[in-house]
Specification:
Strand order of the largest sheet: 5-6-7-8-9-10-11
Number of helices: 13
Number of strands: 15
Radius of gyration: 20 Å
Distance between the termini: 16 Å
Order of helices and strands: EEEHHHHEEHEHEHEHEHEHHEHEEEHE
CATH topology of the largest domain: TIM Barrel
Number of domains: 2
Structural class: alpha/beta
Length: about 375
């Protein structure tokens, strides 16, 4: 296999409603799409880097430079046996996982199309249906939060995750447990707290949470080890895990009991599968987090979520939850039971809507 050509596109999409975390408030997305020509077959990937370096050091702009100036020269014209080898071809570049993942995902898509099989089966997936949870951003009032959760439960989502930050935590969880005593509930802090806040985090244990996601620093494994010792509630790590080695350290040292695997954060399917296999071997549940993706990124998340270790509902939701109109056909839908049927067609199982993508494109560069 050889990558003959890559086309980079930046598209801009407005969210149906603003999404607020402890880091920032997002109203629209600048998304890089990677279209890769691999031996006459076209595969698509999506770079999930944000507009600002608040979740990750990578941004839309840094990813564009990395893709064009550093990663493309490493892969262009190189011969490889399968998409699983692309990760190693890009190894000379340190970090920039989200940029790497977008190229690698596009090649996996192309290989699945060449073999006329669904991508999820090429990956080794075993599920024909995945369970869907939802992430609810920080709201101004408790009433607004309750209304949002009620709406998501009515839509069928099996697990509710709410974003928290100092001052928007205990009251929010207490109110939701009061109004919805039986729901699967978790919280995500996106590194908003420090180890000194452990007494407050300990108070959350009274509300029977599935997990507390990334409560402490994005690169602070040690403090998570100390915090997990003080908590019965599982800590789930997100931002701390970028490599298989970091996942191994977190598990061995007791920094967490659950890991959120995001395709972009870890650099693509090859590393995601390694982390998945490690967690499956060690009995650590994993689930697939979301990054406000367009339909292309969402389709790749569906494929990843079919691997056997993804036993918890992920943040893979319906297209309509974020976009008035998506860039794939058909759009992703969630059943009234909170599940997504995995597509049976070749590749990602969805068709990119080229006319809509071109309409949303604000810059484009063809690399040959």
């Amino acid at each position: 296999m050889r990558i003959r050509e890559i086309t980079l596109r930046e598209i801009r999409m407005k969210l149906v409603a603003p999404f607020e975390t402890s880091m920032e408030r997002t109203e629209g997305r600048r998304i890089i799409l990677v279209e890769a020509k691999v031996d006459g077959t076209t595969g698509w990937g999506e770079c999930v880097a944000g507009e600002s370096p608040f979740y990750s050091p990578e941004t839309t702009d840094t990813a564009w430079i990395s893709l064009r100036d550093y990663l493309w020269p490493l892969v262009k014209g190189r011969e490889f046996g399968s998409a699983a080898e692309v990760w190693d071809l890009m190894g000379h570049v340190r970090g920039h996982n989200m940029a790497k993942a977008s190229i690698e995902a596009a090649v996996w898509h192309a290989e699945a199309l060449q073999k006329e099989m669904p991508l999820w089966k090429l990956l080794g997936g075993t599920r024909e249906e995945i369970t869907s949870g939802v992430s609810v951003g920080i709201k101004e009032s408790l009433e607004e939060l309750v209304a949002a959760v009620k709406k998501e439960l009515a839509a069928g989502y099996q697990r509710i995750k709410i974003k928290i930050k100092p001052g928007k935590d205990l009251q929010q969880v207490q109110r939701l447990r009061q109004d919805f005593p039986r729901i699967k509930l978790m919280v995500d802090a996106n590194s908003a707290y420090t180890l000194e806040d452990w007494p407050l985090l300990k108070q959350l244990e009274g509300f029977y949470l599935m997990m507390i996601e990334q409560p402490l620093g994005w690169d602070d494994l040690y403090s998570h080890i100390e915090l997990q010792k003080k908590l019965e509630t599982p800590i789930c790590l997100d931002e701390c895990i970028h490599t298989e080695e970091q996942a191994r350290a977190a598990i061995e040292l007791g920094a967490c009991k659950i890991i959120n695997i995001k395709l972009g954060r870890v650099g693509g399917y090859t590393v995601a599968k390694r982390i998945h296999d490690l967690c499956l071997q060690r009995g650590i549940p994993v689930w697939c987090g979301g990054m406000l993706e367009s339909g292309i990124g969402r389709a790749h998340n569906i494929a990843l979520s079919t691997l056997p270790g993804f036993t918890l509902p992920g943040d893979v939701t319906a297209s309509k939850r974020y976009w008035e109109e998506d860039i794939i056909e058909p759009e992703v839908t969630v059943s009234p039971q909170g599940t997504i049927r995995v597509p049976q067609g070749p590749g990602i199982g969805f068709e990119p809507r080229l006319e809509r993508i071109e309409k949303l494109t604000v810059r484009k560069e063809r690399l040959t």
